[in-house]
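Structure (tokenized):
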């Protein structure tokens, strides 16, 4: 057993967490400003773009929440699984696998059914969906049931002298601890004294600390955080992917979690990191949605402009790439690669797009001639 009071769950007062509210005021205010901007921008998304935007966010979340744990999925298989469950066309995509289907089901259940209570049975269903074949990689694990009696330790280092990064509460108290967490999660949902974003961060940390399953605890902790955020926003659709922001700072994520397990019940550092990472996820979503809105404005401005299929395809690729997406801008060679047009056809199409005000020349001449989107004023 670990040394007395070595781990956060061994401290007197567990699981009553503390934090320094003053340190969190600015990160929270910045996150709420972005959240308001995001929700405001969502009002302007055309209905035909809304589902695609949701799919893209879910795809990022699904790919990155698995990659954080070192598991790589085929992107098109994940896209197929999500599109199918959103009722979108997935023709031409490979069929989803049991693993990608299960991951899509869990992510959508957590957000679309955010009004439903979190229960032990719901957690077990999520776990069964994440591991439909009874293995984690090549290792058999308990599926849809809590871990066994062996100590739950996260270790690394040479055989015989491993370093213990973290040890979870023993199995003998796990049922009681998990019941306490679920009761708090239900009760705190309507607690006016607890900031909803901090509630999501606490839920993530608390669940990871319990580590109730043989595997998948990190993924489920992030799903629970998504559930808490959906409850806070009263929205069943997620347009930002927390996992993507965590993946961008994966080593920091593990470092702050490990440090928090050893630092006692003051979790200010963890909550500050969580809110700042959440803010980064929101900022990325705002940027993507602004690109969607800019694309919609562009096509509304050119709704009467007659274009051929090649030109439409190329403009959409350029619009989707966003600023800087085509390094060096669009030129005849890139146009030929995208549309399979001949050089003469590419030159003619580009001149036509320039004449119709869809493109404008970037600085440069001769061989360096390139184009960019001519945004409507």
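Design, position by position:
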């Amino acid at each position: 057993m670990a040394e007395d009071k070595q781990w956060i769950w061994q401290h007197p007062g567990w699981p009553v967490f503390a934090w320094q509210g003053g340190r969190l005021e600015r990160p929270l205010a910045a996150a709420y400003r972005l959240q308001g901007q995001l929700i405001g921008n969502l009002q302007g998304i055309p209905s035909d773009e809304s589902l695609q935007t949701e799919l893209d966010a879910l795809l990022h979340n699904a790919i990155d929440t698995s990659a954080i744990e070192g598991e790589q999925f085929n992107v098109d298989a994940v896209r197929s699984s999500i599109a199918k469950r959103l009722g979108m066309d997935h023709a031409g995509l490979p069929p989803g696998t049991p693993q990608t289907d299960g991951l899509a089901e869990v992510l959508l259940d957590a957000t679309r059914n955010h009004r439903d209570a979190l229960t032990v049975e719901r957690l077990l269903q999520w776990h069964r969906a994440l591991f439909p074949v009874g293995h984690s990689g090549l290792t058999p694990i308990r599926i849809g049931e809590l871990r066994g009696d062996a100590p739950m330790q996260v270790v690394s280092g040479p055989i015989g002298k491993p370093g213990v990064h973290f040890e979870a509460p023993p199995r003998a108290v796990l049922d009681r601890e998990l019941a306490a967490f679920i009761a708090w999660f239900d009760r705190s949902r309507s607690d006016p004294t607890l900031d909803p974003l901090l509630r999501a961060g606490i839920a993530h940390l608390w669940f990871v600390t319990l580590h109730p399953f043989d595997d998948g605890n990190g993924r489920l902790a992030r799903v629970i955080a998504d559930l808490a955020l959906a409850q806070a926003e009263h929205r069943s659709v997620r347009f930002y992917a927390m996992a993507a922001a965590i993946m961008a700072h994966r080593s920091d994520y593990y470092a702050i979690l490990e440090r928090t397990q050893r630092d006692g019940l003051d979790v200010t550092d963890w909550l500050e990191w969580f809110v700042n990472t959440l803010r980064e996820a929101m900022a990325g979503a705002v940027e993507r949605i602004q690109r969607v809105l800019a694309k919609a404005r562009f096509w509304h401005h050119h709704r009467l402009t007659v274009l051929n299929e090649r030109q439409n395809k190329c403009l959409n690729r350029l619009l989707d790439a966003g600023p800087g997406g085509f390094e060096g801008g669009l030129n005849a060679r890139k146009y030929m690669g995208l549309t399979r047009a001949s050089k003469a056809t590419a030159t003619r199409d580009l001149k036509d797009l320039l004449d119709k005000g869809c493109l404008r020349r970037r600085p440069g001449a001769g061989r360096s001639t390139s184009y960019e989107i001519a945004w409507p004023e």
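Reviewer-requested clarification: DSSP finds 14 helices and six strands in the chain. The mean pLDDT is 89.
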